[in-house]
Design a protein that fits this description.
The protein is of the alpha/beta class and about 375 residues long. It is about 35% helix and about 25% strand. Helix 6 runs parallel beside helix 12. Bound molecules: nickel (II) ion.
Length: about 375
């Protein structure tokens, strides 16, 4: 519009009245040219804009949305994605974008003649990633299958960092900071190459049958191993001395015969230590009922003990019959055997009666009787 006015005013300022006719011959074609250039009431028809390459005529004060609603409606917002690329929420990413002359504008921006508009889809957004450091638990591994048990290696948890999607909680990556060290329970066998050694063991004493067991062993001149209860030994330290004086081995069977794998480390320690205070230090702990776990083995090992299980269970506490007891020994004994019997507890006359049968049979079959310590 301004350029058209300038063109007209220059023509008027010439103003030579005497040459009015000549002037008219100038003015008329110029006015016609000005008419063509003037964007007054005819401007609506000649103003145009390009939106994504489509050309639109512009009404006055037209916004991008009002002119190119078809293009605007096709533009979609982005979605939010989780770390694996799955869509968390459609359309909740970045909104569609409108650019006018290279600058981001609102879709409601007013268009001017010659405007070049680009409308683009919104972009996907990725969820945040959180790092979380956690322990890698260790495993308990049992090595071997022998009757003597100790904790050969302490377990140590490792550590790893997980990278997780903050919304999806999906795992993106794992980074191991330190590997776990497994806990190793070693089970040592008691068989020695080329030797036929056997250990008779008596549990739960000392009690009123202990002297009879002692006499039966003395009659055959063979040693045995006694796993005594601290609570029983406390009132009968004379018998503990007597057992040792006769060449037998006295070992620890806890204070009160609890199931050790149900106790805390402190309670396990106390069961061992209280008994030790009565009978003195020993090398082996026989867990009552043979019940143990890595905690029991760990506490015992830390106190200098190994767990001593058995390989032949005579079930003498259940089958109070000398022949039945003897039958277990005959069918189950192998070199390195640890034979379980009881001198403590209830009526043990059949255990006492089985001793000479067992010893004779063992000697006849080439076995030597020894204590648990000497099996290893
Ligand atoms: Ni017992």
């Amino acid at each position: 519009m301004r350029s058209g006015d300038e063109v007209l005013s220059r023509q008027r300022n010439r103003g030579f009245a005497g040459h009015a006719a000549g002037l008219a011959s100038f003015v008329v074609p110029l006015a016609f040219i000005a008419f063509l250039l003037l964007p007054t009431s005819h401007a609506n028809l000649s103003s145009i804009a390009s939106v994504n390459g489509h050309v639109y005529s512009l009404p006055s004060s037209a916004s991008i949305t009002s002119v190119a609603s078809d293009v605007i409606s096709l533009a979609k917002p982005g979605s939010s994605l989780d770390i694996t690329g799955d869509v968390l929420a459609i359309g909740s990413g970045r909104p569609m974008k409108t650019h006018l002359g290279g600058h981001a504008v609102s879709p409601d921006a007013v268009l001017t003649d010659g405007a070049v508009v680009l409308v683009a889809h919104g972009e996907n957004t990725l969820e945040g990633i959180a790092a979380k450091t956690e322990a890698i638990p260790f495993k308990t591994v049992v090595e071997g299958s022998g009757a003597i048990v100790h904790l050969a290696q302490l377990g140590n948890a490792g550590e790893r960092t997980l990278y997780l999607g903050m919304s999806s909680r999906k795992q993106a990556a794992v980074f191991t900071l330190s590997a776990p060290h497994n806990e190793i329970l070693q089970r040592t066998p008691t068989a020695k190459d080329g030797q036929k050694l056997v250990a008779l063991t008596f549990d739960d004493g000392p009690g009123k049958w202990t002297q009879s067991v002692l006499d039966a062993l003395a009659a055959k001149h063979v040693p045995a191993t006694f796993f005594v209860l601290g609570s029983s030994a406390a009132g009968n330290t004379a018998m503990i001395r007597k057992l040792r004086d006769a060449g037998h081995e006295v070992e620890n069977h806890t204070w009160g015969h609890p199931q050790l794998d149900k106790l805390t480390p402190d309670q396990i320690r106390s069961q061992i230590a209280r008994t030790e205070a009565v009978i003195g230090p020993s090398r082996f702990l026989r867990p009552p009922y043979g019940a143990y776990n890595a905690t029991v083995a760990g506490v015992a090992t830390s106190m200098g003990y190994r767990l001593a299980l058995w390989t032949v269970d005579t079930l003498d506490w259940k089958n109070r019959d000398a022949d039945a007891i003897f039958a277990h020994v005959k069918s189950e004994t192998k070199p390195g055997a640890i034979i379980l019997m009881h001198d403590g507890g209830l009526e043990r006359s059949q255990t006492v009666a089985a001793i000479p049968k067992i010893v004779d049979w063992l000697l006849r079959n080439g076995y030597s009787l020894t204590t648990v310590r000497n099996l290893l």
